[in-house]
Amino acid sequence: MGKLSTDTPAMSTFHFPHHRASLMGMEKETPPPPLEIPLTAVDSETLRRIIEEFVLREGTDYGAVEVSLETKVAQIIKQLEKGHTKLYFDPESESVTLVRVR
């Protein structure tokens, strides 16, 4: 829970992680940017689980031909190795995701 600060009599502020709301108006601190995670920093089992979670979360329809989870995971691993997709950690949401690089 935030704490009430009365640093100046005219402007009381509640302090919360990553943002600040004042009685004078809404102000937001800039959240920290997502951090790229090098593939060398993640062991293969953890990487596979991240990719599987991503694929299952996406729920992408691949058309008339059913594509297996194993095939989807292999495709993403190739994209990561070629640098077409990158792994990021978002400190604000405390989550990891894959981002396609153009």
Describe this structure in words.
This protein is of the alpha+beta class. The protein folds into two domains: 1-30, no CATH class; 35-100, Arc Repressor Mutant, subunit A, CATH 1.10.10.610. Helix content is 28%, strand content 33%. It is built from two helices and seven strands, in the order E-E-E-E-E-H-H-E-E. A four-stranded antiparallel sheet has the order 1-2-3-4, with no helix packed on it. It has a three-stranded antiparallel sheet with strand order 5-6-7. A hairpin with a 2-residue loop joins strand 2 (11-16) and strand 3. Helix 1 packs across helix 2. The longest helix is centred in the middle third of the chain and has 15 residues, at 44-58. The chain is globular. The two termini are 41 Å apart. Residues 1-21 have low confidence and may be disordered.
